[in-house]
Amino acid sequence: MAPRIRKRRLAIIGAIAVLAAIAAITLRPKPAVVDVAVVTSEPLQVTIDEDGETRVRAHDDIASSTLGRFEPAGLREGDSVKAGTIVGRLYPLPLDARDREQAQARMRSTEAAQREAAARVALARTRLENDRRELARAEQLERAGHLASRDLDLARTAERSSASELEAALQHVEVTRYEAQGNRAALLGAGAGAGDSRAPAIVRSPIAGVVLRNYEEHPRAVAAGTPLIQVGDPRTMEIVVDLLSRDALAVSPGAPMMVDAGPGADSLRARVRRVEPSGFTKVSPLGVEEQRVHVIADLLDQPRALGDHFQVSTRIVVWQGDRVLQMPSGATFRDGRGWAAYAVRDGRAKMQTVKLGRHSTRMVEVTGGLSAGDTVILHPGDRLQSGARVRPAS
Amino acid sequence: MVMHVRALPRKLLRDIVHLRGQFLAVGLVVASGIALFVALRSMNDFLRGSLADYYGEYRFADVFAPLKRAPRTLEPRLSSIPGVAVADTRLVFDVVLDVPGLAEPATGRLISIPEDAQPSLNALHLRAGRWIEPGARGEVLASDAFAQANALGVGDSVGAVLNGRWEWLHIVGIAMSPEYVYEIGGSGIMPDNRRFGVLWIGRRELSAVYDMESAFNDVSLSLLPGSSQPEVIAQVDRLLEPYGGLGAYGRDDQVSNRFVWSEIEETRVTSILIPSIFLGVTAFLVNLVMSRLVSTQRDQIGTLKAFGYSTREVVAHYFSLALVPVFAGSLVGIGVGLWLASQLALVYARFYRFPLAQFTPSWGVVALAVCIGGGAALAGAFSATRRAAKLPPAEAMRPEAPPRFRPGPLERMGLGTIASPAVRMILRGLERRPLKALIGITGIALAVAIVIASRYTFDAIDEIARVQFEEIERADVTVTYHAARSAAATRALTRLPGVLAAEPLRVVPVRLRHAQHERRTAILALAPTGELHRIVGASGDVQAPPDNGLVLTTQLADMLGARVGDIIEVHVLEGKRRVYEAPLSGTVDELVGTSAYMSAGGLDAMLGEGDAVTGAYLSVDPLGAATLYDRLKRLPAVSGVVVRKAAIESFDRTVAESFRIALVTVIVFATIIAFGVVYNGARTALSERGRELASLRVLGFTRGETAAMLLGEQAILTGLAMPLGMGIGYGLSAFMVVAYKSDLFRLPLVVSSASYLFSVFVIATAAAMSAGIVRRRIDHLDLVQVLKTRE
Fold first, then answer.
1. Which of B463, B491, B718 to probe by mutation at the A interface, max A CB count within 10 Å?
2. What's residue A197's pLDDT?
3. The complex's ipTM?
4. In sequence order, what are the residues at sequence separation of 6 or more whose Cβ sits closer than 8 angstroms to the Cβ of residue B291?
C-alpha cells in the first residue's frame, strides 16, 4: 500500500508542477516591443532657433537731387551695376530763386558730408590697424597657448568687424562724392537765364552691386529727393533675427549660426556680428506681447539664390562640444525631481537614474548614469516597468 | 380513475423532489440566460424609447452644418430650401477654460442661445437654476455632465479667454441638450467630462465678443416628413459653399447620436448572443437530465403505460417535468433581469445625458423571455420524451440491456497497459458513449467561452488604450489654435516653461471623394520626423507621413472603396476651397476613428502654401506642467488643450465604471453555467453508475477510490473542454470584432493569456465545487438501497 500512496503523491505533485509550469509560461508577459537608441559620444550643438530675414547691408537709395525730368537708363531689378554705371539722366527744370537757394544749401550740406566721410575713413583705418595688431598678438599668444580660443575668436571678429566698417566708410565717401556731383549739376542747371541749353545731370550708381528696386521705370518729372533706384551689393548680405530678449542673453558676437533658406537649399554658415543693445515689443504668434532684440549676423557662405528681405530659418549655436555623451531626449523621463531612462540590459528594461546636461533640439547630454554604447528605450510607455522583458523593434 | 388523475401530478412532485439538485442547477442556468436577456433587451428598448422621446420633445435637429461665417441675411434662403421645416442659425466657438479646482486647462464649447427663449431647434432641458438674463454679462448655462464632473453649480464661475480677452463666465443654470447626450469633444472615444464641456451663452454677447453681429457659423435644420435628407444636405452645402461651409451632415454622423446608437446596436447584439448561449446550455442540461430520467424510469413508464395511461399523457408528464425548472428559473431570471436593467439604467445615465425617464419593464420582453426559455426546455426534453413515448410497455418493464464493457480504441492503442484499472474504467465509460461525452464537453466549453468572451472586451479596450496612448499619441499635451498660425507659433510654444519639445500639426477639413463614395473628414499633416504623434497600425507597424499622397485608415479607405494607388479627390473645405487629386499611397489599420494623413511638406506642396500650423504636440516636463497649464489657459491663440495623462485616467475610469458591473455579472453567470454542467454531468453519472460504484465499495474499494472513478470522468471532460472552450471563446471574440465594428472604432482581436487562464480558473473552481457536492453524495451512498434496485 505504501508504494502506491507514494506513487500517487508523486503523480499529484507532478500534475501540480506541470499545471504551474503551464500557468507560468502562459502568464509570462510577452517582451514588449520598444524603440531604442544608443548612447553615443558625438558632437552636440545647443542652438536657439528662430526665423530671420536677409538684408543687403551695403545698399544705396539714389534719389533725385533736383526737381527735374528723370529718364531711366532702362535698368531692371536684378541687373548688376558697377560703381559709376549710368542709371539715368536728370533734366533739371528751371529753378526759381528759392529753389536755387535750397540747391545751394544742399550743395553745402553734401560738401560737409564729404568731409565727415573722409574723417570716418581715417578713424576706421586707425581702428582696423589697431585691431590687426591685436589679432596678430592674440594669434601669437594662442600659439604659445596662453590664450583661450574664444578670445582669439573675439579678436578675429573684431578685426573683421572693423574691416567691414572701413569698407562701409569708404563706400560712404563714394556716396557723398556722387551726391555732391549731382547737387553741383543741379546748381549748374539752375544758372540764371539758362534756357534750353541745360545739360542733363547724369545719375550714376555710387556702388557696385545689383539693382534691388527700380522706383522709376518710366520717364517722368520728379521732385528733389524722390528715390529713383536702389542699388545694393548682395555680397554684403547680413541676417537679422528677432530673438526673445532672454534668449539673446545667451548669444554673444562671434557665435556661429546656421541659415536655412528653405527645403532644397543648402544650409549656409553665418556668424553673429552684433546683438543690438535695445529691444522692442512684438506680439508673438500665440497672441501675447514679448520683448525681442535684433541679432545681426554676417553670412560666411556666398548665398546663391538668396535675395534682399528673404525669410530664413536660423539656428544660433550658443554652445558646442565635439565629444559629448548624448542620447535622444525622448528616452528620458522624470523620476522625482531628477531624470531617468530605461536601459536595455540582457533583454530587460532597467530603470536608470541619469544626470542630464545640455539639450539640443532632439538630443540631451548625459553627464551620469549611462555610458557610451548603452541602449536606451525611446518614449517608454506608461506600462513599462523596470525588469520587464523588452525586444528592440527592428 | 381517481387514482389515475392524481398519480401523475404526484409522480411529478416526487420527481421534482428527487431531482431537486439537478433542477436547481438547470434553473440557475435558465435564470442567468433570462436575466441577461431581459436586462439587455429592456435596456435596449428603454434607451431607444427615451431617446426618441427626448429627441422629439427637445426638437433635435436632422441636419447640421458648420461653416466659417455667413451673414444672417442667408437665413430665409436656408429655411426656404425644399424639405426644410426649420433652420436655426447660431454661433459655436471652442475656447480654453480655467475651471476652479482643475489644474489642466479644459476645453469649453460656447454655443449661442437666444437670451429670452429656447432655441427653435436643439432645445435645452434646464435641470437647475434659471435661463440667462437678457443684457446680463457673462451668464452661461453649463452642461450637466461638465458641471457634475467638476462639482460646479449654479453661482460658480469659470474663466475663459474669449477672442483674446480674459472673461469670467457665471453659471446661472445647468442644462442638457439632445445634441450632447454623449458629451464628447473632438476626437476620442471616451468622454472626459472634466475637461470638455458645453456652455450656452447669450447670442448677443457671444456675437459682440467675436465680432459676429448679424452673422452665424453654425446651422441646424429640421426636415419635413417625407423629404430627402441627402437632397437637403446637397442644397445646404451649395448655399454655404461661399461662406466656408464645412459640409452639412445628418443625424447619422452627429457625434453624440452616433455613439448612442452604436451603443444601442451593441446591446442588441449582446442581448441575442450571450443569452442564446445560456439557453443552448439549458437545452443541453434538460436533455441530459431528462434522458437519464427516462432511462432510469423505464420500468415506471412501462408500468404507467400498462396501467392505461396514454402515450400523450406520458409525454405531457415528461414535458411538464422539463418545464418546471425552466419556468422557475425564468421567474427568477426575470426578477434579476429587471433589477439588473435598473442598475444598467443608472450606469447609462452617467454616460448618456438625457432627462431620465422612469425605467418601466417591457412586458413584451418578459413574455418573449418566458417563451424562449420554455422553447429551450421543450427542445432539450424532446428526444428523451420521444424515447419515452416510443417505449413499448413490455420492453420498458425489462431493465435496460447492460452495455458492453470492452477495451476502447484508446485502450487498445496501448494506454490500457499503463493505466490503472480505475483509469481504464473511466476511459471505457467515456468511449462507450462518445456522443454523450462530447455534449458534456461542449457544455463546459461554452462556459469557458463565455468567460473568455467577456474578458476579451477588456483585453480589446486595453489594447486600444495601449496603441492609442503609447504607440500613436506620445505627446503629453496637444494644443489646438483658433486659426492657422505660422510655423513660428510652434517655436513660441517651445519657449513656454515646462515644454521640452514641440512638433507642429495641421488639420485641414476636407471632403474625400473616390468613385461615388464621399466622406467628410480632416487631413492631419504631421512633421516628417515627428516622434510625438505617429501613424501606427494595429500590428505596431509605424509609417512615416507621406510626402506624396495620402495615408488613410483602412476603415476610411474601405468606406471610399479605394485601394493603394487609386487617385482620391481632395476637396479642401477652407481657404480658397480648391479641389486637388492625391494618390492613396498607403493605408494604416488604426483602431479608432477615420483619419487621413499627409506630411506637412506634402500638404504644403499640394495646397501651394507656406508652412501653416493649427496646433502642436508638446513633450512636457512634469515638474513644469502646472506652470505650463496656467500659461496655456490664458494664451489667446489657443482654443483647445488635451492632456494625455488626464485622457488616459479618464479613459481608465470610464472603462472601469462601465464594465465592472458587466464583468461581474457575466462571471457570476458563467460560473453558474460551469457549475450547472459539471454538477449535472456528475449527478447523472452517479445515478447511472450508482450500482457499479456500490458494488466496488462492497468489493473493498475505499470511498475515495470510488469517488475518484466517478469524478475522474468529469475531470477528464472538464480538461478536454478547456482547449475547446478556448477555441470557441476565441471564435466568439472574433465574432464580436465583426459584430461591434463601427465607424468610430474597431476591436482588435487580442485575447490575453490572462483571460484564458482566468477562464480556466473560474471553470475549474466551479467544477471543483460541484465535484465536492457529488463527492458527499457518494460518501453517503446507501449501499443496500442502491444495490437493491432493479433486482
1. B491
2. 46
3. 0.72
4. B383, B384, B387
